[in-house]
Specification:
The chain is mainly β. It contains one helix and nine strands; from the N terminus they run ββαβββββββ. It has two domains: 32 residues; 106 residues, Immunoglobulin-like. The termini are far apart. It comes from Rhodopseudomonas palustris (strain HaA2).
């Protein structure tokens, strides 16, 4: 390793500066090893319980995920992971444009988002549960445990 030292009268290249740089690095490394940096707190995870109703074999919307900024524009979308799949159906996450009126301070808006749909087996009646993990851009994590009652009444339920 070579370094350059500039002074008022001389310009020297050599190992002196390299040794000084190594000594400085060793000192900083030793100091860092003696006092470990505090580790950031892990993001907190909140569990949210939700319910939905669906007709057997018909898709029903069970979640809408957007990130609306204070100026009514869209921010980065959350990431969604299937933690535990339903035992008697399927879950699909679709990306699309979400239109809303009177959402927060936004009177009319259209932003990108994710929509989660549940669909039971055609011959299933009863309750089914799915768990989704939603990680928001600010670091917040939600476990959404969604219980779907299938076969009760016609049609599904809007969320």
């Amino acid at each position: 390793m070579r370094a350059t030292i500039d002074g008022p009268r001389t310009r020297r290249k050599g190992t002196i500066a390299a040794l000084a740089a190594c000594a400085m690095t060793a000192t900083l490394t030793a100091a860092a090893a003696q006092s470990p940096a505090p580790s950031p707190a892990p993001p907190s995870t909140a569990t949210v319980e939700r319910n939905a109703r669906a007709a057997a074999g018909k898709p029903v919307r069970v979640g809408v995920y957007v990130n609306v900024q204070p100026d009514c524009s869209s921010g980065p979308l959350p990431s969604i992971r299937l933690v535990s799949p339903p035992g008697n159906g399927t879950v699909q996450i679709k990306r699309g444009k979400i239109s809303a009126t009177n959402y927060k301070q936004c009177l009319a808006l259209e932003v990108p988002g994710f929509v989660a749909f549940y669909q039971s087996k055609a011959d299933f009646a009863g309750t089914d549960t799915v768990t989704l993990e939603v990680k928001f851009p600010q670091g917040r994590i939600e476990l959404q445990r969604i219980t779907v009652t299938v076969g009760v009444g016609p049609g599904g339920q809007k969320i």
